[in-house]
Design a protein that fits this description.
alpha+beta, 5-stranded antiparallel β-sheet, 13% strand, 4-stranded antiparallel β-sheet, 25 helices
Length: 689
């Protein structure tokens, strides 16, 4: 049975504030009960647009405070200090006793064992607990000092059928709540959570947001199946809609099929982002003119259906008008209008940006061995959609609309796709450009942006990244790695800097080149950590490869990470460490100089000769497999040297009495380590445990 439940009724709390509010309030109550040693069986937090509900089952009615000794002031303390101690504990001096401690003699009071009613504790502490609620956005109303997500109307507080009595700012707790948010004079008294829950259940109000979400999803899919359609359920939209309604009802609506002629992205963004509707597709994944609305009540007279259809029709009519107007405007003629559109302070206009991108894209196209003309053309027109009415109305569609405009005007498919995708990727797991021309355009745009913002010292700080440069740089890293490409980024950055200089745009950041490379490497490190590559492997790879070897860095690290704890990895590290540990110890002697070669004429046994032969074999392998190296085979070859390495150490004394022999053997070990380091510098890799 429920022991304690609290309902906070307010005006409608925005969807994005509800989750944090219910979780924060529940956590604060749990922390309070834990501190007071109050036990309970289960706890829950629910929310609807108007209600925040906290529930604790089978909570202790009475808690037993054990006897404890309360220390007071030192016996030599002023009399006022003693009086203050007596007053705060509501005792007489005769009830105290003196006890010796490490710090001297102190007055003590033995607090007797005491039974305390949980209900009284709650009445005393609920206001303070609620005051700890944190809101991303809050508001004050009237002349009250309370900050809350939205204006509060009532607080219902029940403890085992007993109404808890307390004041929270201007509100007094009670055993009733408003049961109709529209008619606030309609109230109802409740004695426990069971009757409260059952009452709203009869009214088809689902208090539990998780059950509500599940119900909505099932209803959406059910209605779609009835129409032989597929509903595309966006999780974020579903979460938002769940918090917008308490009595969910799914309604099937339609818009004029004439609107299906405009790009589907316009239809989807109108329905999903602007109206919170769910669009549908047919079995061929073509968008249909039917959409699903989650209303907050039944639509017995069809008013909700017709109202939503009118809203969508109006928005789509505007979009259709803009589409016809913008798609017919010559893209080449619109390029000059970019001169009037400022890009960023100190970085020129968007016209300046596309001119830089054209030249940078040309260099990238040479590296990729693709048509320079196509890349330069893509760069020239990729930003024209920013001055269109459609992107003004739907800014989320920049790039996508540009691609459609190019398509309707007969541009090459590669160019159209490149323009559509040049803002991608927008996150760690989002789609990214895959086609060569799309890659070239996306890289040109991202590099130009990064160079410009770093050059003007608009860099991310430890806590802020207002221009989303971390996301942009991560996108650049993903494009390179996930398309198996390698670029001379150092040269491209230098060239991009020179392009700004050619436009007489001066940078205040004198350390631009180094800072930007460090920033990109940091994003690479983040990407590798997200792929669960060990930190010691990441550090070793960063000591091994430059910014121009991002792909090699990642792929070698990934393969090593996969095999490091298997027999192959263990054999490699153990072989390397046996050699490097001796070298490290001996090289502490500053008088000892080790060369990069060893003298086979000084070998005294077969073990030295065998190890030297193995090293030469490995060096030959690295020399011949540079471009088409199979990293797993490389690691297997390195692991295969374990037997010869161990036989050498088991049978050869490196620290020979003859200094020439000793030096020669140390040089042999140095050759071994440097040969292994052709894969990655293994010195930073932790030994197997």
């Amino acid at each position: 049975m429920s022991g304690f439940f609290l309902e906070i009724f307010s005006e409608e709390i925005p969807s994005n504030l509800q989750k944090n509010a219910r979780e924060t309030i529940l956590q604060n109550f749990k922390k309070f009960f834990e501190n007071e040693n109050i036990n309970f069986k289960n706890c829950s937090a629910f929310s609807t647009p108007n209600r925040l509900v906290i529930l604790f089952d089978e909570i202790d009615k009475i808690i037993l405070r054990k006897t404890e000794e309360i220390r007071g002031p030192n016996v030599n303390a002023p009399e006022k200090a003693v009086e203050g101690f007596l007053k705060s504990n509501k005792i007489e001096k005769s009830e105290t006793f003196i006890k010796n401690t490490d710090k001297g003699d102190f007055y003590f009071f033995k607090k007797p064992e005491k039974k305390i009613e949980t209900a009284k504790l709650l009445e005393e502490n609920i206001p303070q607990i609620l005051d700890k609620t944190s809101w991303k956005k809050s508001m004050k109303w009237g002349e009250f000092n309370l900050n809350w997500g939205r204006p509060l109307k009532s607080i219902l507080a029940i403890f085992y059928s007993r109404t808890l009595q307390f004041n929270y700012h201007q509100l007094k707790s009670s055993n009733f709540t408003y049961v109709d948010k529209e008619l606030e004079e309609k109230i109802k008294i409740f004695k426990d959570f069971k009757s409260y829950k059952n009452y709203f259940k009869v009214k088809n109000i689902i208090l539990d947001q998780d059950l509500r979400k599940k119900f909505i999803k099932n209803e959406l899919e059910k209605y779609a199946r009835r129409k032989d359609l597929i509903v595309e359920i966006d999780e974020r939209l579903l979460e938002e809609v769940t918090n917008l309604v308490e009595n969910p009802n799914v309604i099937v609506c339609k818009f004029d099929k004439e609107f299906l002629k405009i790009p589907k992205e316009i239809l989807i963004i109108t329905m999903k982002h602007h109206q919170k509707y769910f669009h549908t597709v047919d079995e061929k994944n073509n968008i249909t003119n039917q959409f699903l609305v989650v209303a907050n009540s039944e639509d017995t007279k069809g008013y909700i259906k017709s109202g939503n259809e009118r809203v969508v029709e109006a928005r789509l009519s505007d979009a259709q008008f803009f589409w016809k107007k913008n798609s017919s405007q010559n893209l080449f003629k619109k390029i000059s209008e970019l001169k009037t559109m400022n890009y960023f302070k100190g970085l020129g206009s968007y016209f300046d940006k596309v001119q830089r991108m054209r030249k940078l894209g040309g260099i990238i196209s040479d590296e990729m061995l693709i048509s320079k003309e196509k890349v330069e053309l893509s760069c020239s027109i990729c930003k024209v959609d920013l001055i269109s009415d459609l992107v003004g109305e739907f800014p989320e569609l920049q790039g996508i609309m540009g691609g459609y405009f190019a398509e309707t005007q007969g541009f090459d498919k590669d160019i159209c796709l490149a323009i559509k995708e040049h803002y991608l990727p927008i996150g760690l797991n989002s789609n990214l450009p895959k086609k060569p021309f799309s890659i070239a355009l996306a890289l040109s745009d991202k590099l130009d942006t990064l160079v410009g913002f770093f050059g003007t010292n608009n860099k991310p700080t430890s806590s802020k990244d207002p221009y989303a440069l971390r996301r942009l740089a991560l996108g650049l890293i993903r494009i390179i790695i996930e398309n198996n490409k390698e670029f001379k980024l150092r040269d491209l950055i230098n060239y991009s800097i020179s392009l700004y200089q050619q436009q007489s745009l001066k940078f205040s950041n004198k350390f631009l080149h180094k800072e930007l490379i460090d920033f990109l490497l940091d994003r690479l490190k983040y990407y590798m950590k997200e792929k669960e590559i060990r930190s010691d492997i990441i550090e070793s790879s960063f000591n091994s490869f430059s910014i121009d070897q991002i792909l090699k860095n990642y792929q070698k690290s990934l393969v090593l990470n996969k095999l490091i704890n298997k027999e192959i990895g263990i054999d490699i590290i153990s072989s390397y460490k046996r050699a490097s540990n001796i070298l490290e110890q001996e090289l502490k002697n500053k008088d000892l100089e080790i060369s990069n070669t060893t003298d086979p004429a000084l070998f005294k046994n077969e073990y030295e000769k065998n190890l030297h032969k193995k090293i030469l074999e490995l060096r030959k392998y690295f020399a011949t497999s540079n471009m088409n190296e199979n990293y797993e085979i490389t690691l297997k070859n390195l692991a295969g040297s374990k037997k010869i390495v161990f036989e050498f150490f088991d049978n050869v004394i490196v620290n020979d009495d003859d200094k020439t022999i000793k030096k020669n053997r140390l040089e042999l070990l140095s050759m071994l380590c440097k040969t292994f380091d052709n894969y990655i510098i293994f010195s930073n890799i932790e030994s197997p445990r």
